[in-house]
Amino acid sequence: MTEVGSTPLVEMRNINVAFGGVRAVDDVSIDLRAGEVVGLVGGNGAGKSTLMRVLSGAHPADSGEIRIGGEPQTISNPRDAKRFNIETIYQTLALADNVDAPANVFLGRELTTRWGTLDDGAMEDATRKVMGRLNPNFTRFTQPVKSLSGGQRQAVAIARAVYFNARILIMDEPTAALGPAETAQVRDLIRQLKAEGIGIFLVSHDIHDVFDLSERISVMYHGKVVDTVKKGDVTPDDVLSMIILGKKQEEATQKELAQIELH
User: Fold this and answer.
1) Most buried of 79, 151, 196, 259 (most Cβ within 10 A)?
2) Helix/strand/coil (H, E, C) string of 127-182?
3) pLDDT digits (tens, 9 = 90+) for 92-120
4) Residues 140/152, Cβ–Cβ less than 8 Å
């Protein structure tokens, strides 16, 4: 779990990203510690995804600083992010549907024999080991992933990140379009990752997911961080009002809060 006062795994300081005249990310600072989930919430266009694209190397910031383990670092592309053990699991999962779980875990980073051929046995053994940690009930190692359920597909994507030593994981809407049982399965996977000391930025529209899994919640509105709060200090309605109004809880008027309740 989170060590109070420990050096964050990652700090993003005063990050700015503009598209034309629009500030998609406006002077945002956020951090993440080992074994912690930070929920990142906000309406469409709030800047959540753009901020995480900066950390994943998909889009460079115009200004600001990223610190990994307390040291300033440059992340210019996804290769840089992987070098710092930052992995991203996008909502689309980026899986190759026509091949099996081991081939997806090692996609683009395949193991080969000394003769230069694919070492399918080694890749399956490694996938079985990492999946045994994450989801011991997973048995469908030889079927194409298109035949797997949504929760099983998430497990494959998470296994890929964990096998390659992710310490910082960005998860984009991990339970979107999943049923209740599969959502519970993915939440269990996230708890397992926390227990292993992995820090997770959880980008989600699902307030229940965020409250179930996060220690802290950062609310974004029009490119800015409205506030970062400890889950135990707020209710889901408090967070919802910050998402809608773009104001800290104590700054919202009773009239504004009443109007939200009417809706």
Assistant:
1) 151
2) HHHHHHHHCCCCCCCCCCHHHCCHHHHHHHHHHHHHHCCCCEEEEECCCCCCCHHH
3) 777 899 999 999 999 988 999 999 999 99
4) yes
